[in-house]
Fold each of these.
Amino acid sequence: MRNSLEIRNLSVERSNREIIKDLSLSLTEGNLVHLKGANGSGKTTFLRALAGLINPSQGGIFWNESNISENIFFQSILNYVSHNLGLADELTALENLSFLRSISRKTPNKTVEASLDIMNLKNFQDCRIALLSAGQKQRASLAQLLMFNCPLWLLDEPFNSLDAESCGVVESLIDDHMSNGGIAIVASHQKFQSSTAQHVVEL
Amino acid sequence: MSTDTTTWNTLFILVRRDVLKTWRESADLLYPIMFFVLVTILFPFALSPEILVLKSFAGGLLWIATLLAMSISLENLFKTDYSTGALEVIVLSGVPLLLVGLAKAIANWVLSGLPIIILAIPLALSLGIDAFSLSILLLSLTLGSATISLIGTAIGALSVGLRSSGMLVIVLALPFYIPLLIFGAVATSNSQAGVIPEAELYFLAGLLALAVTLTPWATASAIRTRLS
């Protein structure tokens, strides 16, 4: 069966304000969505709802026809990289990612060291996150994408703070994911290159 | 690997991470311990240098200092993990949140409860507590501090994402600590009178069993609610 993500009439409220209103979207393997919108338009809220962190006020999100709110294994097929990065400042890049790999219920893919190497962080893997530059922190966070074999990627501003070379690495990661039959939703202010046709959703 | 082994292993990994993180942020580690030592040292200056007077107050004093010092340590339990997004990443890793809550409490006890219990030995002796009462004090502090960590973790999770949550956590947690304070202090004072405080110690052990059973669920539920 082909993997599919279906968003049916999704509405999300935050503090009695409707951020997402009646949004529907249907995606299958190899579909890439570029999520655009002004600051505060709800891109992060939408991604957090897709990740199951926020309950929708109306509608639902279905992975392979099963509602994600009733699917306890949904998080194991999901790679979500938030704009907060999700790395503890006091730990090194290697410690942060090794910790994540050892507790995660997701299917493992590349080793932590190999993932950091691909993200050009091999020489900085033993540096505490607090001492890394913004771009290096972003790359360390994105290394999570390589560590797990997840069919669904939700990326919140993955190109933030990255130089042109690193942007190219991330774009090629997204391309590889798409050519392997993955689904990706990328919230980004900037245009990015991809060999996969992008569905653009403006919030 | 069996499920049990995986669960214990995951719990160990979660505890080790929190311990390492706090160990490297030395201020978070030192403030509660310094507070405990300073309060205990300053008390004789305000009350009386007479050993008989100090001895009669020692149990209660050490218990109050423990409660307040451990309450200070609760403020930062979830703070940095929330602000860096690490808590979200942990939740999305699929690890049971029960284990996350339990691990936070164990790490909090290792980093604040355990040092306080160890430091209580010289401080209690300097306040004139005898060997038998000291053993009862240490036993009551061990049972009580573990319960404080468990309850405090659940209340700390309720304040995830709130600004200036430190005082709120202390105010919410202190009423739950009152039974611990009463039975802990009474256990020590009874032992100083030569009575073996079995009932008080059983009560403290019962509260610990209750806290181990219930608070990880409360912490898990609070984390889920506060993140959404």
Amino acid sequence: MTTTATATSARRAAADGVLDLSRANGNLLVLAHIYTATLVLGIGALFGMLQGFSRANFIVMPPWFDYYRMLTAHGVLMALVFTTFFITGLFTYAVYHTIPRARSVRLGWIGYCTMLVGTLMTAVAILDGSASVLYTFYAPLKASPLFYFGATFLVLGTWVVAADIIVNVVWFKRHNADQRIPLPAFMATATMIMWLIATLGVVAEMLLLIPWSLGWTQGIDVGLTRMLFWYFGHPLVYFWIMAAYTIWYTVVPVTFRGRVFSDGLTRLAFLMLLLLSTPVGLHHQYLDPGVSAGWKWLHTVTTYGVVIPSFMTAFAIFATFELAARKAGVRGFVGVVRWLPWKNPVFAGPALGMILFIFGGFGGIVNNSYSMDVLVHNTMWIVGHFHITVGGPAALTFIGATYGLVPALTGRTLFAPKLALVQVYLWFGGMVIMSTAMHWAGLLGSPRRTADVSYFGAQGAATWHPEMVWAAVGGTIIAISVLLFIIVATGTYFADRHADERPVFDFAATNEDALDTPPVLDKLGRWAAVAIGLAVLAYAGPVAAQIQAHAYLAPGMRTW
Amino acid sequence: MHVHRQERLWMALGIAMLVVFLAVITTAAVVDGFVPPSHVQSIDPTRVSETPPFDHPGLRKVADGAYEAYYVARVFSFTPASIDVPAGARVTFYVTSADVEHGFSIPETGVNTMVTPGWVSTVSHTFKEPGTFLLVCNEYCGAGHHLMAAKVVVK
């Protein structure tokens, strides 16, 4: 059968409301991404809960699966694997859905399989204990080559997905020269371009680490690998945020018949995020020796630049709420808040994530405050911060969207929708408890990434334990919530209840009076060039200083 | 492209906030010298125990009330394990690693820096009140990371 014929039959099947998992329309591909993310979230959450128990001294992990091995697995699975699979799946869907055409999904599958193989390689290395290096894998801790190869394959897989997305958008532009790229596809492309630029850093780092882990080179420039890692490490968080924003701008309004507030301003916000994501990474290295204070200050300035697209987004989201409510005859702050569909998990997940993000943003301002960072660097405050950001706005938004995506992809009704609703609120409550305790422990000076914070009963450490107990309580609630999520997400498939009307996962239209988008905003290639230029400007100096300094190479070692 | 009046106002507020933050941080850095520890001095991590002054880590008095403390971080301990200083002493810590990445943090004092093999970190602090301060490694360094601690006794 030709691709065209398959695509036609797939479209017909979709129109008839028949279960449709044919390969050609990409539904199965997207579902593979989403379910992989779901499974990974489940494993990661279990490890997270056990970590909470360990730090609260409820349990001691056995030597064959010690705390740091588990911590490495938790960090890699949550920060690198769960998020990445969900996001590449979401963007593949956004592009396939808004650019309908007869297409081959081969490239998409190659990308997915490469990511999966990479993930499995990394997982084996972590589980067999040869890679307890945490998700930051700071040299000269030396993991087995399998770990670095696996991580590299995971990234290369995302490059293939990015290529698939770009191929589709270029096709669209070629056939619709007079039209703008559909908004969700534009957001997907801008984000993946940002991702390509950012991941160059980690791939460059791998080019140093892989030969070294194989024993081909004797030492490693620790400062340089740290700089390359954080060149990638901060844009990684914007990768999550831009995906969450894509859902906030274009999916959330659908749940209350709203429209995108402004087409042009949305694109502008995404372009700013594309430009401002990479030239900022040194704010993770404020306390590093070997990097001068001037370069760190420069990155403070660029990091704060993200205030602008963040404020634009906050305005647009709340304006979307209010305009839709007014159209329905509702006015006033309380009226609008009450009117919103809090009983729909596709809305409630992202909306609760937005609430958490307000506090996550406040914390981020503290972390980026140059000299103030000294008080919180490498304390539990930072752990609280990233749980209320990636574990709040990002994860809750992805979970909410999964409740919309899985029924649409499988043509089945959501299994136990009430459980889904309970799940997002449980997550929110658990995260508030856990993150508050972590932030507070951090202010009291409790270090992060430690199996035990009792320090032989030292006086200074006595105040940390109660906070760790609260963090364990919050972590348990989140883990229960994740279990419910898995039941609903996979139950939807296995319960196999076909909907009378095929569920859709659609993107909102734009307010008609906000469509006069300047064409220059659509020229993603040019904006990508500007983004590369900014990254070079921000990093050429510090990297050159790092290479010129008499940096000694450190021999690798395994200290676990 | 149309931008609503309220949105212009909102954005102006955001940008004003940004300017204020940066002005405060920059003023504090330039006028008061509040900059993060950013010492640029390299050292061969394989020869730390032969390189002065780290061949004899410990506390040195440089003037009345002014001390320098040289530390070597090595899995899973700090050398020296304990130092005694009088209340009111200003101590400048010099720390380097003989193996992997470590952290050097004295909670509730503002003493906090990364310790990177190949580099010397430095940070200063005036210990005003007497007491026993816990000094911890706050960057993961291996299986015994949570045991890596020392103390500073202020008398």
